[in-house]
């Protein structure tokens, strides 16, 4: 049941993200007087719809996107233009005809192409901006909730230095440095070798490389700071898996790792992340997503190659909506607290909205970035004409000429999506 709930949560989260993206387009378009005839979440057959005012609101069967139909997205063909022949010429002509037919008599001024360049930019950037805002809000939410993490408070102290085989302590075993130093369960380690240790990771980094050296260790005990001296030893320890079972290599020997050993285990506690780190976390998500989008063709090829060969699917492989759903099922099935699973779900949705933000800024139709580029081109032409004193100013950009690009992009995106769906079914990404 928890897995079903997890999938439903991520599906609803994706639907809400798409719906708010389209609201980001629709709200400013209506504010600027453009007639919006349809607002749809999803593609394919319509499951439900209602008409309110002049707009039909609905939900479609395939939750892979959505759209807002704004009247007059493309101007009519320039005066004197001849209707070309060939497949793509027909695509351009059909797009112009459909756009013009949507305009009601007497409402020519409400066509999208009559908007000024700044207003067009506001409308087309409204959708991606909504996803960026959602990414920020969701990031702040999961950081405020926090995750169960290892802390610098001591849960237990080892009695002896472990052996490479993981055998229990015996009377002849050397005492662990923590015991010799007087470290106790409940002590919170404040600093190690003069370095403040606010997190478990910082403490491990400070301990590394200090084997054989007497090191000052400051702990907080019963509300007071106590300074101890600990001398870590260079110990070879057995590697344990997530269940605490000794890991063995292919020959059956115990896998070991050596390093500075003090001899204590940390407590586990929920730790929220300061909201001051939200900008840096959002920036990290943006750069990682932008890198993935920039290399998208290569990443899709790698996903396909890993799926249909013996190469294991990498944990950072690109995924389809199916892959995100499977990741949500994995999260729901984790042996973790409800709050931990909620935080991970929120982080997944934050990453998804960042992906929608970046992906839609690709400067090619039918994506929002393609319309942004056309609006900027139109504005640049008019600015140059205005500076040169030319009259009349150039008309709206002939967006229809880019329809062949949009057609090819649509086919490529559908192909990539289907390929990733197959990959996510046959060889899903193992995040955990």
UniProtKB/TrEMBL annotation:
Family matches, as InterPro entries: PDZ, PDZ_6, PDZ_sf, Pept_M50_Zn, Peptidase_M50
Alphabetical GO biological process terms: proteolysis
Chief place where the protein resides: membrane
Highest taxon of source: Bacteria
Membrane topology designation: Multi-pass membrane protein
Residue ranges of the TM segments: 121-145, 342-362, 405-426
Keyword RNA-binding: no
Gene Ontology CC entries for this record: membrane
GO molecular function list: metalloendopeptidase activity
Keyword match Calcium: no
Keywords: Hydrolase, Membrane, Metalloprotease, Protease, Transmembrane, Transmembrane helix, Zinc
Residue stretches making up the PDZ domain: 174-234
Cofactors: Zn(2+)
Location of the protein in the cell: Membrane
Family to which this protein belongs: Belongs to the peptidase M50B family.
Name the UniProt record assigns to this protein: RIP metalloprotease RseP
Organism lineage: Bacteria, Bacillati, Actinomycetota, Actinomycetes, Micrococcales
């Amino acid at each position: 049941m928890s897995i079903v709930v997890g999938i439903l949560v991520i599906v609803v989260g994706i639907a809400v993200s798409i719906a708010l993206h389209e609201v980001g387009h629709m709200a400013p378009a209506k504010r600027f007087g453009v007639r919006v005839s349809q607002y749809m979440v999803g593609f394919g057959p319509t499951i439900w719809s209602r008409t309110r005012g002049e707009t039909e609101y609905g939900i479609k069967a395939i939750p892979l996107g959505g759209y807002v139909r704004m009247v007059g997205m493309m101007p009519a063909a320039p005066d004197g233009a001849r209707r070309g022949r060939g497949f793509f010429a027909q695509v351009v002509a059909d797009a112009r005809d459909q756009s013009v037919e949507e305009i009601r008599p007497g409402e020519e001024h409400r066509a999208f192409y009559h908007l000024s360049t700044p207003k067009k930019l506001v409308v087309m950037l409204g959708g991606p901006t909504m996803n960026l805002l959602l990414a920020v809000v969701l990031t702040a939410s999961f950081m405020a909730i926090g995750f169960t993490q290892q802390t610098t408070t001591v849960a237990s102290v080892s009695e002896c230095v472990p052996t490479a085989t993981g055998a229990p302590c015996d009377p002849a075993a050397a005492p662990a440095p923590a015991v010799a130093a007087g470290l106790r369960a409940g002590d919170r380690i404040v600093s190690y070798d003069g370095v403040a240790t606010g997190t478990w990771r910082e403490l491990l980094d400070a301990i590394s490389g200090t084997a054989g050296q007497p090191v000052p260790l400051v702990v907080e005990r019963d509300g007071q700071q106590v300074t101890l001296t600990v001398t870590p030893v260079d110990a070879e320890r057995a590697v344990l898996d997530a269940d605490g079972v000794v890991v063995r290599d292919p020959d059956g020997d115990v896998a070991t790792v050596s390093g500075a050993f003090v001899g204590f285990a940390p407590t586990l506690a929920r730790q929220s992340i300061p909201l001051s780190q939200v900008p840096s976390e959002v920036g990290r998500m943006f750069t990682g997503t932008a890198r993935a989008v920039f290399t998208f063709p290569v990443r899709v090829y790698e996903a396909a190659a890993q799926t249909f060969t013996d190469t294991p699917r990498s944990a950072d492989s690109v995924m389809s909506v199916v892959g995100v759903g499977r990741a949500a099922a994995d999260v729901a099935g984790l042996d973790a607290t409800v709050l931990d699973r909620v935080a991970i779900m929120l982080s997944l949705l934050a990453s998804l909205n960042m992906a929608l933000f970046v992906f839609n800024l690709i400067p090619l139709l039918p994506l929002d970035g393609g319309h942004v580029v056309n609006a900027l081109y139109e504005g640049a032409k008019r600015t140059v004409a205005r500076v040169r004193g030319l009259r009349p100013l150039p008309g709206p950009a002939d967006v229809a000429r880019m329809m062949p690009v949009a057609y090819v992009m649509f086919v490529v995106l559908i192909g990539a999506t289907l390929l990733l769906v197959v990959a996510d079914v046959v060889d899903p990404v193992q995040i955990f």
